[in-house]
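Run: sequence + 2-aminohexanedioic acid -> complex structure.
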Amino acid sequence: MSKRYQNHIDGKWVDAVSGETFENRNPANWEELIGTFPSSGKEDVETAIKAASEAFDAWRLTPAPERGDILRKVGDIMTARKEEIARNMTREMGKVLDETRGDVQEGIDTAYYAGTEGRRLFGHTVPSELHNKFNMSIRRPIGVAGVITPWNFPMAIPTWKIFPALVCGNTVVFKPASDTPLTATVFVEILLEAGVPAKVINLVHGSGSKVGTPLVNHPDVGVISFTGSTPVGKGISKSASDTLKRVSLELGGKNAQIVMEDADLELALDGVLWGAFGTTGQRCTATSRLILQEKVYDKFMDMLIARAKDLKLGDGLQPGNEIGPMINAGQIQEVQKYVDIGRKEGAKLLLGGAQYKEGDCANGWFYAPTIFVDVTPEMRIAKEEIFGPVLSVLRIGSFEEAVRVLNNTKYGLSSSIYTNDVNRAFQAIRDIDAGITYINGPTIGAEAHMPFGGVKETGNGHREGGWEVYEFYTETKSVFVDYSGQLQRAQIDNY
Ligand code: UN1
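>> structure
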């Protein structure tokens, strides 16, 4: 039985004002309706922002360690419900159960990290220029945070954004991707059960244009955190400049794995298979390019094709399946568009290249793992994000050429090099233009307590995860305490 789900606004579970709804279907079997969700609009967003603004004062005055304690309870509840959340996540967005379990675990780790961060939120004390005067900086919450999240990590990414926002003392209006509204709803239920005050967390379902845009434009929202595509991120950045709000953008990637001739090839093979085809290639950190040294080219390609052609596609809830469906028909078309471009550009298709409809996959959005060779650095399939199970292979001679080819894209999120030469490894760390570099590991595999984000058009300089995101959600105040009992002019006026 499919269920009718609601928004959580102003402390209550409610329908959209318009009464309209949208459907959430299983991408592995589109005949399975998971539920209907409110198709919200500007009025719903405005009520949510008003509630979040009203709740701000009491929440910012709650001691940060106490706010952190609530998140520790959130982690406990998520741990107890991990399996159920993972199963529902696989049903609504397709990736295989092992991966959705990992997605929930990333949220759990983020909860426990955030919980203890409530006991830090460090400021600085520094000496004053003057006698009998004390200087410090403290951190204050910003106000209402607007959080807009994608469907590929329906639990982990909302936790990356919402936990630090809350620990820092902000209240939240949360607009999840309309492909994964169920996980978002369960997440908000858990926050409330753990003790987040009802008006502090508001959930508004619906589309980017009807819910996201009014959220970004609203003058009472002080900070926006968004993960999604680069074109949408640029639009958000422009709109947010009207109200000068702070914005964190985590956008596209065109990540590459370099394999040098001295690499452990078996290790590199496991890495590229996981990086390129895990989550059906639908990670912003996915390995979209393999940059392969010519001396090991033929051998490695034989190994790669042998393994990639046997990857098992199917419903992620069935044990043994390795690759789930893509998220929806639109993404299938987008991937097909790039496969056609690659062919026209003269790359050679070695594997896949079409929607996959065999057996149990007939009623789902499956796409065959796809590998292009003879890809040159200037081809679009070597430079543009595809967000699907498509790997472009580029042949290089030297290490220097490998780094040059890797950097030849407007994105800079994740990167990887397989080599046993420690000098090359450190040169790669220094010279690769990316926010993340893995040595002898694939391009995917973030850790909750490490900064996450990229350079160039992958973002606007902020990082999620780790300690840096806590700075994003706070404003610094410089404080001067003069205990001299006299007017002391600043040093510049006395010099
Ligand atoms: C994303 O695809 O937006 O490192 C995030 C990784 C994951 C996070 C990916 N833990 O691949």
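>> summary
The pocket of 2-aminohexanedioic acid is lined by residues 106, 152-153, 157, 227, 283-285, 444-446 (CB under 6 Å). The domain at 255-439 is CATH 3.40.309.10 (Aldehyde Dehydrogenase; Chain A, domain 2).
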